């Protein structure tokens, strides 16, 4: 199986067990609140799709209180089942962000948060989101910025883990012992397998998206995320030059 397919398989079959615990631990932060209010501000009613909906919290759950016809897709059947049980008003189904099974121009708004870095091909996913939204409709998503030092360091480490099996297995076992020791204080899931490392997260180069939007004549706005700002987490960026100060960027694109 090639690398990208093993990532998809992992996201489909394994990742949901980990994410549900982590998501609950995150709770709702200012960033989530700002994203939710942006969504509500830009589209007041109509059909809304969350791509990679997870267990439905926090975004779609918050929107169930408003006048929307809500839809969600996720690659993991376990996540889809969780949404069906907890949030039955959402039309949720198993689906791949890179091949969305809805017709063109079907939605008034499409969004995807905390997920694009798990996709194998971000421009394919963004063009799918743009395909299913109506003309003049909005697509919102966030990306990890590959040019930020945090992600440059992270990717270097990921490549090292993928290339050297000995390094990977040794660090995996050392980390597991540390996790066992700190378990009475904090719970981290432990993964004892001897399988090769799979790179699950790929940050995005903002220049790739800039080029993609230019070629497709799409108007877009970018926001940098300020994690320590309690009042407002999204800073509107006017030019490309400030992008690399932010490890997370939020894009809002309008379908022409
Ligand atoms: C970190 S979780 C975020 C879930 C939710 N958006 C949230 O913010 O809580 C990432 C989600 O992406 C989903 N996912 C990964 N690859 C996908 C793909 N190709 N198509 C659809 N969903 C995918 C995973 O199953 C998981 O639910």
Task: For the structure shown, list the relevant keywords.
binds S-adenosylmethionine, Rossmann fold, 256 residues, alpha/beta, single chain
Give the number of DSSP strands.
8
Q: What is the helical fraction, as a range of percent?
A: 40-55%
Provide the CATH topology of the largest domain.
Rossmann fold
CATH superfamily of the largest domain: Vaccinia Virus protein VP39
**Helix/strand structural class:** alpha/beta
What percent of residues are in strands?
15-25%
Q: What does this entry look like structurally?
A:
The protein is an alpha/beta fold and 256 residues long. It has two domains: 3-145 and 203-254, Rossmann fold (3-Layer(aba) Sandwich), CATH 3.40.50.150; 149-200, no CATH class. The protein has nine helices and eight strands. It has helices spanning 3-13, 15-26, 30-42, 59-63, 77-86, 122-132, 149-163, 165-182, 206-215, and strands spanning 46-51, 68-74, 91-94, 107-112, 133-144, 219-225, 234-237, 248-254. An eight-stranded mixed β-sheet has the order 3-2-1-4-5-8-6-7. Helix 6 links the parallel strand 4 (107-112) and strand 5 (133-144). The model has no long low-confidence stretch (mean pLDDT 93). The chain binds S-adenosylmethionine (SAM).
